[in-house]
Amino acid sequence: MSEANRGARGVAPSQETELSEANREAAPAQEAEPGALVVRGLTVRFAGLTALDDVGFTVAPGTVHAIIGPNGAGKSTCFNVLSGVYRASEGSVRFGGAELTSLPPHRIAALGVARTFQNIALSRHQSAEDNLMLGRHRLTRAGFASAGLRTPWARREDARHRARVREIARFVGVDDHLGAPAGTLPYGVQKRLELARALAMEPRLLLLDEPVAGMNGGERRRMAEVIARARADLGLSILLVEHDMGMVMRLADEVTVLDFGRRIAGGEPERVQRDPAVIRAYLGAAHEPAAPSHGEGNP
Which structural domain range is residue 234 located in? Predict the structure, then answer.
């Protein structure tokens, strides 16, 4: 890292060795398990600014892995690379035997990677059920002509997908709202609906970007229960970005900590929570006001 970049990003020269060692700890001692998400040396630059610098971690199959860090640490940039929204300047992201850094979002989704967003991204005027059907798109075999003509085969396929959507809605707890326009639903229900749409894609890897942002305590607990069940009952691998440290401590098997675009710590939640570098990063971060909470009755 150049002196100019180091100064601009707030990394003291004395921290260079410590940060490099933290990133090296992320390198696997042996080949990762099949089905693991393996991130190595991930670097992203925007017009000379380094947003991610040599980041590495592994999400083992069937585990929950959390990425945490102060605002501006590079968490969303990392998610955008993993889902194909941004291109990496350097490094590798491998999942299911494929290198993701060269693939567009729809190809990554076809490999079994689904994502939710920090800000709700539902089609507000469509029903909740139709929003979930959007998640079935990549699994649909009927072409436009068959679907448009409502051929018997297309009708049978549509019925199968809608039956599966209703199962997922019950799993997430939004089945009572399937007929309502998504934009009219309470905020907490909309957040769970977005999770249900991601599950409707039948993913192997689920990327959750601040899944409980803006929720009240009851909504957060309910969402945490659904995420835990998705991991336990569906066998999913889950990578989440979250500021709610209580939720991270309860759900995550492993935690990766980013600060100024670099990996400063990683490991089991209890160990990471006590790491001096993590404590410095959070105590040094500017105090941020909490996001407003929305009750179940307020959209």
Answer: 3-112+203-284
* Residue in 224, 247, 268, 259 with CA at minimum distance from that of residue 55: 259
For the chain, the distance separating the N- and C-terminal CA atoms, rounded to the nearest angstrom, is: 45
- Is 26 among the domain residues? yes
Give start and end residues of each alpha helix (H) in the chain.
3-8, 16-24, 75-82, 105-110, 128-134, 144-149, 152-172, 187-199, 217-234, 245-251, 269-273, 276-284
pLDDT by residue for the chain (299 residues), tens only, comes to 444 444 444 444 444 444 444 554 444 434 567 789 999 999 999 998 999 999 999 999 999 999 999 988 999 999 999 999 999 999 999 998 899 999 999 999 999 999 998 888 899 999 999 999 999 977 666 544 454 556 676 778 889 999 999 999 999 999 999 999 999 999 999 999 999 999 999 999 999 999 999 999 999 999 999 999 999 999 999 999 999 999 999 999 999 999 999 999 999 999 999 999 999 988 765 444 444 555 544 44
DSSP SS3 for 52:
strand
Q: What is the CATH number of the domain that holds 104?
A: 3.40.50.300
pTM attached to this predicted model: 0.80
Neighbours of 18 (CB within 10 A): 14
Q: What angle do CA 175, 181, 186 make, to 5 degrees?
A: 70
